[in-house]
Amino acid sequence: MLQQVDIQTKLKNLPDEPGVYIMYDANGNILYVGKAKVLKNRVRQYFHASTKKSEKVLAMLSHVTDFNYIITASEADALSLENTLIKKHTPPYNILLKDDKQYPYIKVDLSADFPKFIPTRKLARDKYKYFGPITQGGIKSFTDILSSVFPTVTCNFNFNKLPRNFRPCLNYHIGRCTAPCAGKISKEDYRKIINRAVSFLSGDDMEVKRTLIEKMQACSDKMQYEQALTYKRYLELIDKISQQRIVVLNKFVDYDMFAAASNGQNCVVNHTMIRGGKVVFSENNAVSDAGIDEAQTLSSFLAEYCDIVKLSGELYTNLPLPDESELAALISEKTGQKTQINCPQKQDKKRLVDMAYRNAVEYLTKSQTSIDKKFNTTHGAVLQLGELLKLKTLPKRVECYDISNVQGVDKVASMVVFTNGQKDASQYRRFRIKTVEGANDFASMKEVLTRRFERMKENDGVFGKTPDLIVVDGGLGQLDYARQAMEEAGVNVQLVSLAKREELVYTLNGREPIFLPRNSYALNLLINIRDESHRFAITYFRKLHNKNSIKSVLQDVEGIGEKRRIELHRHFKSMDKLREATIEEIASVKGMSRSVAERLYAFLHP
Predict the structure, then answer these.
(1) Among 98, 207, 455, 534, which residue carries the largest CB count within 10 Å?
(2) How far apart are CA 312 and CA 309, in angstroms?
(3) Quick one: which H or E segment has residue 75?
(4) 135 or 601, which is more confident?
């Protein structure tokens, strides 16, 4: 650990240039990455007693033992480098917005001959026009409304290569498509439908309401009450969306308003979206950041947030940002459209920013407990786990493994991943045990981890990503076999095991267990990831076991081959449901005949 005098010496030698600074703990883990217009001024603020600091900054500084910096050619380069380093190292005291938590949008290629509306959660710089985010009712309900009122293409056919006698699909016959594939509509008439749909997505919902009311009334007159109820629900959804779209301006403009509010311990950033002169979206984001002030936190937030939400070209904030022009250039580069950022001082824009700030303050005041809990159970738990287990690397990526089988039959294993204390389901993996005979959980654990370490050595960037900590479900026995797999693979990973009942933690540093405090967030994190790995393993085992049990039971039934076994499993899922089925239900399965269904029923009910 470096002495305080070393930090003071470094502070005296800081340059008067822009750049990025990096804070480290005693084990060399990166705690925070920040940017500075003048490195000397910004970094010194953290360590000078006269500077007023938030509780989050003080908490970080209690772990800081060293810092480093990188000089850049300009403040814009510093901003870009900061953004890159945060994404690479995911420091616990920086704003970490998960990229896989995208809002739903609807996109359309208006340059196509027959455009279609496509739901998506990924924004890109491409030929599509995006509408959203969709925050009410879900993307499925929204696309159902579109297809009910504006019958447009949903398929992927190339209409120029279809045969002349091509027959339209079911969507045409139920009025959800105009069948340009079969020449049922001209490009000009189809374009009129698209233009009306675009008007609806832009906020004009009068035509949609009128059409849905007509359809609801027609279904009611025909006593098609279920379909009429569906149209009624669509109308309620549109009314709910309309209530959110409060008219705030008398001109058709697109703005994005951002306001940061802090109480010294936590910070909330509100985003209020204005589209077509109306408020269409307002959301509060509780953020964890050890920036020296709210302006720095808001700047870091915007640099990350523009990857998640489709922003307009005009951004307004409640605080003047010291790097407005550089941040605007970075967002322009990311989004592909010219962006400007300003702190308005009067008229409509100031009123909207003030509204965003009031929302942020209210959320911060009323949600203080939940904000604290979220940090303590995620980033805080990661920090606490590293301290209590004396880990050399902060466990930002934790993998946990569990084995599941019944008397050695259908042996499977699970791998679940928590990133920064939160579930990362896209990284989950499951295994079928290939080489172990019988119910040998120790050998099964060794096989799974051996395969995992080999993939890690291949460095494929996804499954091969190196974990900061591996947790195995069990005691010293499972940990020993995990250690053998690691040593034979020639890799070095932090390993622990979590034993059930007493929830004891075993490490490679000795044979005695570590007793984590029962009420600690670190232990709760380990228990949560262990329980999640158990759930994931059991789910896979049951799915595999049900499939194999149907296959094994039915293989001696005359007339039922591989294809029929697959269809029976797909339809009934388990032997219990198959035994409960009637002859008629069995005969209704794809590929089954009445005679074979009767034979199978007799076999299952001797």
Answers:
(1) 534
(2) 10
(3) helix 75-89
(4) 601
